[in-house]
Structures
1.
Amino acid sequence: MARFVAARLAHAIVVCFLVTTVAFLLLHAAPGDPFSFDHPRISADIRDLWRAEFGYDRPLLEQYARYLGSVARGKLGFSHSLHIPVGEALAGAIPRTLGLMGLALALSFPFGIWLGVFEARRRASASARVANAASLVMASLPNFWIALMLLLGFAYWLPLFPAGGIVDVLMHDYMSPGQALADRARHLVLPLVALTLVATAVVARFQRAALQDTLPADFVRTARAKGVDDRAVIGRHALRNALLPMITLGGLAFPALLSGAVFVEKIFTWPGMGLLVTNAIGARDYPLVLAAVQLGAFMVAAGSLLADVAYGMADPRIRVR
Amino acid sequence: MFADLNAGARRLWAGLPLPARVALVVLALLYALAIAAPAVAPYLPSEQLDIVALKDQGPSWAHPFGTDRYSRDLLTRVLYGARVSLAVATLAVLMSAVVGTAYGLVAATAGGFVDAVMMRLLDAMLSIPRVLLLIAMLALWNPVPLPALVALLGLTGWFEVSRLVRAEALSVRERDFVVAARSLGAGAGRLMLRHLLPNVLVPVIVFTTLGVANIIVLEAGLSFLGVGVHEPVPSWGTLFFDGTEAFVGTWWSALFPGAAIVATVLCFNIVGDALRRVLDPRHLRSA
Amino acid sequence: MTVVRLVGSCLVVVLAACAACADRATDAATGGTIVIGVPASWIPGPPPVIVDIVSRTVADQLYDRLAEIGPRLNTIGDGGFEPRLARHWTWAPDSMSIAFEIDPTARWHDGRPVRAADVRFTFDVVKDPRTGSSITPLLGNIDSVTARDSMTAVVWYHRRTPEQFYDFVYQLQIIPEHLWKDVPRDKLATADQARAPVGTGRFRFARFEPGVRLELTADTANYRGRAKLDRVVWAIVPDMGAAVTQLLTGQTDVLETVPADVISRVDSSASLRTHKYQNLQFSFLAFNLRNPKQLAAPHPVFGDRRVRRALSMALDRQAMLDNVFGAYGLLGVGPYPRSLSVGDTALALPPFDRQRATALLDSVGWTLSPDGVRRRGGKTLAFSLIVPASSRARMRYAVLIQEQLKTVGARVTIESMDFLPFNDRQINRQFDAALMSTGYDPSPATVQQTWSTSAITKGGQNFVSYSNPAFDAVLDSALSTFDEALARTLFRRAYATLASDAPGVWLYDVPAVAGMHKRIRPVGMRADEWWANLADWWIPSNERIERDRIGLRPATP
């Protein structure tokens, strides 16, 4: 088991390194640099001075080596566009995105699995068909459209929830702890629902498909023939086998949710990684973009690693390979 | 051979449930309308009829989908938008399918170290969130011409299908007729093309159908973020994005493009699901 | 004795009552919190290195100038200027220097008194090329600043000019020497001091949460009196749709610019009000007079004045204005915003006349081909138009212009891009046509920065490379005369020359309609800076809502 984990860990590190390199090359290949876009009255000489100071005029390989060196020492640099340390910008944004995504994952998987089981079990019943159709439609709707509808519907037409932000920008600091918690919860509802709805539908469809593959399988037929109760059949035999792909899905869910978070963060003014990175790319803020990409790759790799280990624990056959 | 295809197609149609058949017809209709758009559309997509008097008009007999803020007929633009959206999505997905299938087949046939390296690379690519990668590339090289956009979409979407193809190829590789071919001295290329490829096509077909749906939504999302297709080219994504800007006052400008997107995606999803079940080898074998 | 005591106690009572009255009056006027929704974050850094508009808004609350320009925005001499850090100034008889007396009661937010040395230090920082300040080119006429004594700063000029006072006073917001003197000049923006700015303004820095908000509170011990409001919060809302929604739902109180199609919704809202104000921003379609591929050569299409005039006549500016802005549109009147003091609103511009336009193009040799596009000697009347995607109004104009120019046989390709790459293309003159938007300073000298031959260099803003020696000469005379009436006449003549050369099409003045909660009473929204008198904005006590009642108490940890 330990060898397996070590192998996967090494794999994760290699992946992180590759992603960083790709990001670095992409950024530097694109036209423009952090200083080409400043105020027009700033002369070209000053821009060149700044470039030389930050080393953007050195050969690419040297820049890359210097960057890797400083990262290894833990120095992530200064954001050119925000004038604050990169670490600080990330430290603020990451918990906000992780919190939202984590909650969405935590909610969508159980719901999705339950829904998938329900649809597979009562395949012919009317309610299952409705559920099936609903999850199909939900999985087909663009997630930014759902987010927009939620914002318009429940923050504007029916002002039940706030129209964005993580907390009340003013009153939050003057609330009692109970009120503050409620404030956070109220601001969390709409973005969370937006992310969870689509994720649940996708998980449900996946689960249903996986179950439908295993249900006709021989061992299930045998169990049925032996008179084992339907629920037990699904519960103990089919579900166990169908859960394995779920774990893989969980590993893949992280990048998918991160992508979805970009839209949701924009619409709900959620100051997380999505907004931070898209703005940084537009401003060619190299240190910030690279640090964010590395962090993203690390989190995704960690997620895959966890998924792989879980898979390995659940299915001994994999470990032997 | 055509008789075979004909018979195969008829059997496929017979195996499809009703919703899938309806969806297939709807899709065929959409593609037909898209191709015939210049002949069918009442106006030109960029024609501004009267920027003061005909701006933001609701649906009427003259303009069934209403007009947009530049007094352009929305029905025309949705029809022309279908051309762009469907073309971009179809071409991109085909590109993904081809590249992914090739990659997966090569990996499966080569085996050993080459296979391991290829799979590691694939894992690395899968770790990168696709939307963020696309946003980054589109933002860095803004403005990106349409063919480049298609290429970008296609080249970022093949990872999943190559995994599927490789898995399928690996299982087929051990089947009798393949072993026989190998022992008779068939080369790797011939092996891939004649024996493996026809048998791994099923997951590819399913992927393609579902993939088109994904790309249509993706393109809409990228236009929403401002990095997708550029003015004045109408795509469903840009139409939808324009429409949502002033949604409350002019509901038709977002409703019709949005409905087009959702309807198309829904149809593709239904067809994809049905195909997955119908083309399942186990199902085919037992039939 | 008892009478004296009686009178004394009466006096005491009366005085106490008066004091209570005064307190209540001040209480009635002071207090309240407003939340301003802004699309981008405040970026830490002292005034010399500030380039973005949000940071400028904040800096104007935290720091003071020596004197503030009057509401009429007069820039000639010192007429209309009100004392700020300098309570009094004296011109030398030859006008080659001005002595400013610092207000002895002026204090920095950390309690230290303001000295003449601070003024000298600020000037040295701005002049230092290592600072990389965008204001440096504007202070070319100023030789130096000396401290005659601890409370008197003297500014020395190279030449007498009509705007010498404005040049020095308007651009410099004074920063404290004792806090900044040890910071390397090229690290001003990233120093710790930038994260906790100390100034002399009626607001002081309270808190900054990166990506979320910035908070300023009233400086209660300020030498000019505390700000009326207790607190101002800048909340960052990057998406315009979300910003409008947050205004409508009451999460934010102020939105600086309400998009034209939403104005009616804000107007009809029960809790909001729109405020129209003047500003100095205008937008125009600019033609690059030089070839972007070979900047020494004239542009193949726009190098010819007649083609430019023909294209100007092909555009229905009024119809486009109606389409984009509806009732809130302000038609462009020339190469300047109409609120500029020397702006001539009756300038003769090429009229909208498609027939004349096509006739003119035909006469110059651009003939119509069967495909609807004009050609001349193998070249096509085709060009690209760059637009910043972030400006909704300009994006709309681009689509309208593309279609309108098609009717006279010109093929326009729209290239939309992010604001920063757009800026980059402008500066490097890598465009055919561009939809530009410029904000002028109150001084008419801005015209020189944008249209004179000397501004074609890398540091200048004459991005279209317009060069007309006649125009330059008249403009120079206009800017060096001390006679206001003569200056106005000369300016009009210069503008007429510029307009007839048609280096651009003057589309619109950027409409300035702010959306605010109706309890807010805005004061003194100046054309150059609507936020200039934010410290005097107030909220009547009987209209206050929950957020106004926080007062000045700090947040619970």
2.
Amino acid sequence: MSRPSLDVGAIALGLSAVGFGVVCLFAPSLSSPFVQPILAAILIAAGGLGLLLSRVRPPKGKR
Amino acid sequence: MGRMAPELDLAWLDPSLRGLTRRDASGLGSGLCRAIAERIGVDPVLVRVALIVLILSGGLGIGLYAWGTVLTRGPSGTRPIDSVLPTFTTWSSLAQKAAVVVTVILVMVSIGQVMPLPWAAGVLALVVWAWLRRRKPGAVPQAEDAVDDTEDDELLIGRWRTRMASAARSAAEPARPLPTVDLYSEPAPVEGRKPRPAWLAGLLILGAMGAVGAVLSLALGVTPMVSLAAVTIAGGALVLGYALLARGRRLPRLILVAVTVPLAMSGWLATQAAGPLLPSPDAVTYSVIAGEKTIDLTTIDTTKVDAVEIKAVASDVEVLLPGPVEDLRTTSRLADVTVDAWPDDAKPFDVTLIVDATASNVRLVVREP
């Protein structure tokens, strides 16, 4: 019996939360024009990683 | 029989989305992203990421998602718009499209009042995408479904019969050969077990997040913004770790929704709190983010300072002034900036006072030194 697939939604959300928290922590020392692109890049990276993980399937022993 | 406009759906933007149906609405959302992904043949995560990017484009994605949901048929086979606004289908095609465009713009303007976000790139990307999808060979031309109100019912019925006949001809084409099934082969491996919901772990994660916030803000006395950042990081790390380590169980979606609350608050506060306010050496700046503060300007030296800028985000601020301000500039978004009555005999406070308040209460009081 194969293992259950990864919970990519939770992984993407967890990565986004960590990234947003770090940006919030250092926001006063960041230049304001860069904050939104950084947040967008975090979301894209987390979503992209989730997308990649959802594409990776364990071998099913196809014959 | 009265004339009715054609049913407005997502084919307006992309002809390949004609007659889209949300078959599975059991998740967090309405199932729209999944339905679009299945129709255009991509992973649903990709559509969700695109939606998030559009939401960050001035809230464009919020309006599009809401209209996309109410204009597509759900699992029950009915469109939400038909039960919410039954007369919508009697409107002309132009009026329906105008309603969509106007309400989406209103949503973006409302969100822009609270949180200014760049919207041009998202709108441009949407327009380019719709243009490309319409130009795609094989797509149903848009002009075909744009029915003129002046056409009579006989013409509509005739067009419908033509389409049915065309569909029947395509159905009569030779079917693909059936797959060969070998009954003597070994059974195919069973799909992965369905993970069980982990409510206890989810509640423990929420409890740990609350504990981190309480310890930092109450015991250690750090600012609310730092506490919020730490709570978000702790929640994200715990969710991430659980998802990677415990594959047999899955955090309930309701728990994940709860984790998105501090995430959204962190993102919003980060955009508001970033950067210096006034780089000028002749200006004094005060920034209050998610806190309470009394700013005393009664002792400020007006011979060295030309301007004072006060930025308040989700805060309660009281500003003590030595006298009436002659040049007061206020910008408020969901905020309340109140000025107590100036005393008649007080000496004027000769600086430019700039108050930028977002979701805050700012009170200006004259306290003579």
